[in-house]
Amino acid sequence: MGEPEFIYASYREVKDAETTDVYFLRTKKILEAEGLADTLVHMEMTVSGLPDGYPWGVYAGLREALKLFEGRPVTIRSLPEGTLFRPRDHRGVKVPLLTIEGRYGDFLELETPLLGFLGSASGVATKAARVKRAAGDKAVLSFGARRQHPALAPFIEYYAYIGGADAVSAIAGAERLGIEPTGTMPHSLMIIFRARRGDHRQAWLAFDRHVDPSVKRIALVDTFCDETEEALEACRLLGERLWGVRLDTPSSRRGDFAEIIREVRWKLDVNGCSHVKIVVSGGIDEYKIPALKAAGAEAFGVGASIAAAKPVDYALDITAVDTGGGWRPLSKRGKFSGRKQVYRCPRCHVDLAVPLGSGQPRCPVCGGDMEPMLETYMVDGKVVKEPEPPGEVRRRVLDQVFGLPAEEFLGFSFDE
Description:
The protein has helices at residues 11-15, 22-33, 62-69, 111-135, 153-163, 171-177, 187-197, 202-210, 227-238, 251-254, 257-270, 289-295, 304-307, 390-401, 406-410, and strands at 40-49, 57-58, 74-78, 84-85, 98-103, 139-142, 167-168, 217-220, 242-247, 277-281, 299-302, 313-322, 327-329, 340-344, 351-355, 371-372, 375-379, 382-383. The model has no long low-confidence stretch (mean pLDDT 94). Helix 3 (62-69) packs antiparallel against helix 4 (111-135), helix 5 (153-163) packs across helix 6 (171-177) and helix 9 (227-238) runs parallel beside helix 11 (257-270). The protein starts with 10 loop residues before the first helix and ends in a 6-residue tail after the last helix. It is 35% helix and 20% strand. The chain is elongated, with a radius of gyration of 25 Å. The chain folds into two domains: 11-122 and 311-339 and 373-410, nicotinate phosphoribosyltransferase; 138-307, TIM Barrel, CATH 3.20.20. A seven-stranded antiparallel β-sheet has the order 13-12-1-5-3-17-18. A six-stranded parallel β-sheet has the order 7-6-11-10-9-8. A three-stranded antiparallel β-sheet has the order 15-14-16, with no helix packed on it. The chain is built from 15 helices and 18 strands. By secondary structure, it is an alpha/beta fold.
């Protein structure tokens, strides 16, 4: 136990491929010994499957991929960060989301961290987008830092925000995004005041006295007593300064959470506290939000369902090889060989993956023009196009997500 650090990989260890699968290093040794490491390859990253059968995913992690490959002599083309995608095109062909071209020996050991970056980022962003689509105009707060390794907190918050979360709680994550962290208060604050001052309600007043006035006053109202009575008492103590109350009742005590929210909303309204909003947290996901929203919840603190979201199952495969006489379509069985471009119809959201250089296709649904999707981001190891800032990517995601009916994006419908 004498090690001075926590167990995590440093930037340099990831960049130098010390987190890769060992068979890549053995493969590289063999290719170098046989004089084959300079083989020029075209590789495509496709989706083997989306979590839980989602119809759409959010492509995320491009920023990390470019940082990873910077300095390696490769060319990278990719969908823009934050693009919605289906795993297969209109004809059932797997859609390449990112392509890499270069001498295989120059970059093969980076496949493992590449897939880890993109799979994790896309999983978090996709779940966040689903949660935000269900929440609609109500706020989604990312509370997930405690549900993953702490070294990942900035990464999780970054891609939760890109996916649609309105705010994040982890300090380092907010700093990376250039926004203020958002949070309420823990049960421990209430317990300490109950033990030392004899009244847990004094915690609300202490929060109001000592926390910067720019921070919204949101009282936690389910520590000891009935939620409806505590919500009303918080309003009586803080008045117009109280922005909201938070319900975080453990599942073992919750009963019908929507009914509790409905009762709290009624109690507040009939007692002149209609300005007070209801914030809910604890086991929230896109499937639970519609009923809670209908009951009166106006903000959702979401932890594990976003932070511990299932990764998108990406695969990276050689689909063409140049041995000196031009590109030869070549791939393992089950893959679609050749170099490709992806086109999308902006009206029908239909994709087509076609051989590179075959020309612009027409939309098979409406007959209209289709737009090329894969853009060049890196040439010979140098970034030639930077991904947009997170705020711009987030806007792109939300424009696409809310441009689709809930049923088409989420895979289930609900009443708005």
